[in-house]
């Protein structure tokens, strides 16, 4: 099931160079158990009933293991639940995982709420590049 959903896992199981190809077992230590449970739920059901606020972690795991469908599913869920409190985290994540869709939607949300976003705790930790992009977006659409 893992190999069918991810070329990363397929390589682990089929290339003969990895331990997984010898044992038919994979050890995933870099994903917390709750996120892994949701990842497996998605693999078996093509859906996750309740993300339990794990969209961020699922996007990270899906990106790492090259699981495009899960990444899209978790991204869509994250975008439905954007808030002043989490938008900057998802904006940075979009940049990190090279998701133009996530980055652009988070940028739009943040620029729509620029005054509140600037007052958030995360504002100070943003890279200069993201700050510049955010101000450009806000100015472009007359939000500043």
UniProtKB/TrEMBL annotation:
CDD domains: BACK, BTB_POZ_ZBTB_KLHL-like. It comes from the Eukaryota. Gene3D superfamilies: 1.25.40.420, Potassium Channel Kv1.1, Chain A. Pfam families: BTB. Residues 1-52 form the BTB domain. PROSITE patterns: BTB (PS50097). This is BTB domain-containing protein. It comes from Tigriopus californicus (Marine copepod).
């Amino acid at each position: 099931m893992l190999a069918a959903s991810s070329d990363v896992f397929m390589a682990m199981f089929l290339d003969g160079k990895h331990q997984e190809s010898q044992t038919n077992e994979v050890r995933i230590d870099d994903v917390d158990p709750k996120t892994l449970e949701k990842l497996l739920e998605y693999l078996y059901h093509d859906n996750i009933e309740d993300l339990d606020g794990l969209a961020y972690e699922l996007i990270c795991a899906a990106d790492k293991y090259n699981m495009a469908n899960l990444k899209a599913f978790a991204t869509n869920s994250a975008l439905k639940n954007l808030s002043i409190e989490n938008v900057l985290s998802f904006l940075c994540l979009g940049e990190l995982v090279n998701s133009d869709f996530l980055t652009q939607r988070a940028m739009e949300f943040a620029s729509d709420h620029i005054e509140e976003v600037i007052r958030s705790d995360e504002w100070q930790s943003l890279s200069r590049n993201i700050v510049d992009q955010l101000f450009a977006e806000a100015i472009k659409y007359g939000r500043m």
